[in-house]
Amino acid sequence: MFFVQNKIMLPLKRAFKLDDRLLLILAGCAAGICSGLAAVCLKLSLEWALEWFHHLRSHLWAVLLPGAGALLSSLFLNKMLREAPGHGIPEVIYAVSRYGGLLRFRSSFSRLVSSFLTIGSGGSAGPEAPVVMSGSSIGSNIAKLFGLNERQRITLVGCGTAGAIAGIFNAPITGLVFAAEVILGEWKIVHIIPMAVAAVAGAEISQMIIPDPVLFNHSPFQVGINDTFACISLAIFTALVSAVFTKVMGQSGKLAGKIPLPAWFKAALGGCAVGLIALVFPVVLGEGYGWIQSMISDTFSMGIALTFAALLAKILATAFTLGWGGSGGIFAPCLLLGSLTGALFFQVATTLFPNLALASAGAYALLGMTGLISGVMQAPLTGIFLILEVTSGYETILPLIVVSSLSSTLSHYIEPASIYFKDLIHKGQFLRPGTDARILTDLNLNELLDTSVKTVTQNMLFREFINLLNHSSQEMFPVLDDTSGRFLGIIRISDIRRYALDPAMYDMIFLNQIMDTRIPTAPMTYDLKDVIDIMDANGLDTIPVVDHSKFAGMISKARILDLYRRELMMQTSHH
Amino acid sequence: MDYKVLHIFRNTPFGRETLLQSLYFCNTIQASPVVYIPKSDKFLFYFSNDVIQVDLDSSYLTDPDTAEARTRNLLSDHGIREIFLTPKNYTASSLPDLPTHFDFFCCPRSVSDLSSRIGLGHIGPKVRRIIKHATFPVLLTSTVFKPWKSIAVLFGGSDNAVNALKMGLKLSLASGFPLDVYTLMEGRDQDVYKAKAQNQPFWEMAEPRIRNWHFWEKNQFDQMLYDIPHDAMLVMGAYGHGPLKDILFGSKLEKIQSTLGNIMMVTGPQSTIRLR
Prior knowledge:
Chain A is mainly alpha-helical. In chain A, 65% of the residues lie in helices and 5% in strands. Chain A has 25 helices and six strands. Chain A has a three-stranded mixed beta sheet. In chain B, helix 1 links the parallel strand 1 and strand 2.
């Protein structure tokens, strides 16, 4: 790493007079290309696996296939690579907000292999979250290799994400929007330009290897004003399905967590459950893009009851796959659930109101996808641009905006946290740039400590203390043990006034007789938020910080405010 | 002194030896041990420019019900108040993040291999990465606990060796033990090495602490190793002079750590050593 930085990067920077922005764009391009390649690898391998397993699906024992895949996936992830289960996106967001985007190298390939095993064998999940994890890790590791700073590393994590989404969906704008909206949580020029370059690089690589113009083809839809109004009802419908899906996913994970079985066994059980569901509803298997295509092309033939049952089956299958230890993302399940929801809505609406001139079941499948993506991820822009790019359905832009914005708003009302942020919020680790929690986390307790404070000892005579006061402007004096140096209490000038006004007392009392031993202290291990909570609870502006019984320094609200403002300005500046 | 030493407890006889060495080190330099009893077989260290996942071998999770009581007993035997580390942040549910603000980190030569292999004199890949990226020096324990009575610094004249000399001085000041310096002259005169050390701002403090400075010819490496007291704490830099000095550990370190059974303090390139 040091070799690359000193022997390659520095001479390159000097030779080509690269400034930091240009360097970031070049590094972003590299991250986009690598992420795009990772996406293409997973896409091709999944196509191969689905084709290879297709002829086996007619056998009854094929119900075991998703179980076997999930088992292998769990063993690979937990035992071989010792990675935590899950789709990984909260991990990326956590790394970005807390550790400047530091991600492990093993994450650049671990989820690709594990999700290939899960989805390829028929598990109900999508390949997008794994490629996002992989792309983010590639970006982070490129930044490490080039010795880039924290802010540049965060940009490269965004570049990797943008390249990965652009590569897997052939959707560069969605890649850029998803990276900014979900992963980084901020829109800054300094991020946007390298991420845009990375997204284009990822999409181009994908196009070169798999020259598909769009993911889902369809004939142009005739969308009218009726559809725009109908979209309001559809948005309510998609928001409800989003909330149910998010809830079921969470409960499924919790239920699996309570079962005292090995992780690989639970993953296998979940996979077998998917296999059983697939006996009745084959729509639940894999990413389900073929079914989405049939719905958008108006060749989907299920009736209302069957579509509704398929919708529930897909929710359950995804919960069994991901909640029980399989590997994969929720983008593809959301797309399928959304298209089923849209198709179901269309069927119900045209049955109840046969004279209502609505566009087509395909158009509503497409709108339903936007609604589900926006509702589950609470990322309306990602929902809009994804559907526009994967379908080229630009004629539906107005209803798309209506469904997307309403669905995300209503979902937020029902379920305040999106599926990606839920765990982070629960752990108090959802730290978006410019928010109070993030600023307090980024401020270092050491930086805030006033270590120049004069201390006194417990056996100091009051007269000596008065002499000390003559040469000091301090308001509080920490009292330490004479021998061990242990923190014992504090002397406040305001508390000792009555002794100070009586010179007869000067030689009669020692400091341990008048010190305040009940003053609350903060250990060094506390976060700044905890320290402020202690101050607020006790109505104090300054408290001592004690490290393993030793006095470390004083911390004051005035100092916190100074540094808080500085940090806030840095995090919210436009560049 | 209020140095803090991070120790990952392994609930096995080998882990006890490691903890005993850690406790002796703490008592000698008046440091406080911070003991982490792992609940899962992995944890993360986030350094400024890298994140390291430390995959612990299965022996770290042996008999978890007795781990805390055994640690408490050993700590109280040494008159040390127990301080246990409880991770506050988790990257994933089974993946805690351990803080990295410690002054020292104590571990055996390998944390990811079973202890039966550690005696073979091999520094494991995780420990290597920690040494490379950590801001704290790493205390590599030997297979069995043996009190050390002096400090031996291996000084080859590189910047890392200067760091090691400073570390040796820091330990000597904190423990009161004498400091010996060992130099293997590789085609250079004694004066070159002395001048390098004398140009350091801490030289005035170091000079009175140095008991002996031993110079050995290039072909006397094995004799030099035998000359190092068996009960000395060995202090050395992780990287040497070679063209790949930033990538691979110094060849001397590899040879020394596999030859000598002494407890070792290794300073990596990111180690910041303050004399206080």
